[in-house]
Amino acid sequence: MKRNFLNFKAIALFSITIGVITACSNDNLKAPSNTDSNNGDNRWITVAAAKMGDNPGDGNGGTLIYSISSEVAKDPTKSITPFENGFIAPSNRTARLQSSEDGNIIFNISYAGDTGGNYTKYTVEGGQKFTLTGSEVSIAPYVGSAPRWIKLFDGDQTGAAVYVSTEHKVDDNGTPNDATDDTYIRTNAKIGVVTLDLVNSSIKNFEEHNVPLSAEEEAKGYYISRIDMSTLNAAGNKLYIGARLSKVDPSTVERDSNFEILGSKTIVLDYPSLLNPTVITSTVGHGNTNGYRSINAFEYNGSVYQANQSDPNGSHILKIDANNQYDNSYDFNLDDALGVKGAYILAWRPASNGKAVLAYRHDGSAEGVAGPQGFFALVDLNTQTAQKINGIPYDPDFYLFQYQGFVVDGTEIYLTQAPVGKNGNIYVVETETGAVTKGAELVNVEGSHFIGVF
Description:
Keywords: Signal. Residues 1-25 form the signal peptide. By secondary structure, the chain is mainly beta. It contains 5 helices and 32 strands. Strand 16 (238-249) and strand 17 (254-255) form a beta hairpin. The chain is globular, with a radius of gyration of 22 Å.
């Protein structure tokens, strides 16, 4: 007799719920200031602020956004007050935001709660003015009310959201109440992938697949437990999905938290059909590739560069070549490049020149009010080098674990710096030279923090 233990199962429905989100009223907020017109060489810079829920830095009190011109963003004499003046992005917890490449559109999928899984987009018009554009579509019937989604780099055309459910397969040779004779077989990982038309607010495609690991890995109890951060290859015919592995003890079918970290893995699907899943494995990096809140992989110069996390040798940036396999000759280890131990990539974003700004922590990070202290580095994908950006002030309460967004404008990259509950600033890094410009002040409130710019 075989028994299956269900850990998580996304409930599939058969209809798409369409409506319009009514955003929380901003009538009681102050009028927008410091927005300026957005003409000429300016573009919108949308600041995202995460309000405290129960604990400092948890971001569970909701997300507020406020837009300014790039000229204002670079002006240290200006002060921005998103917590006081911002537009409330619909979401029960921290909103999962994306922006168009020119900054004129904000895309949002609400995370958890009654509106969880609802997709909306807004035209950016300065200050707290974000105008709902087009219709809403719910992806909750496909990937649940707390979806993990990302905007693909295809000209702002498509978003992709994913889920995974797992099921332990056990052969019970004894009685239903006697686990001593249970024989663990494997854990099945079933993934779901939905693509979303960002222009017309509609579902493009949805597919589900069982995605096995090798027989040897599965016999030891390994399985894919979380997926995220879908990325298109340069040819646009493959979709890469980052993965995290977990493990059970085959003798007890209980979670094993002390196990050997395997080579980093990525699920590869045909695109746009979302068919024919395969799993590729790095021999250079070990640990997870699903990231957290920020985009974790980017196409550059014909290859996809992907960060990994929880690597016992420190985070790496890995390279997937045009043949859709890891390039194991590319060994970019952040521990070695930065001269630290236990580097952990929290978020990153490259410019078109292959130079990137990267948020990280490491084993020597101070423990702040919300977790380990964060830092920024300038990295070069071509030379595999990295250096801490010293033109940005750091504080033990500078918390970057929930960081989501950077703005790339040519070779410049915009970011936010503010410790939890303290004021900070926008900073602009010229990636060609490493020069840092201190920009507008960010006015904070108790227990809250800033999660990036879009």
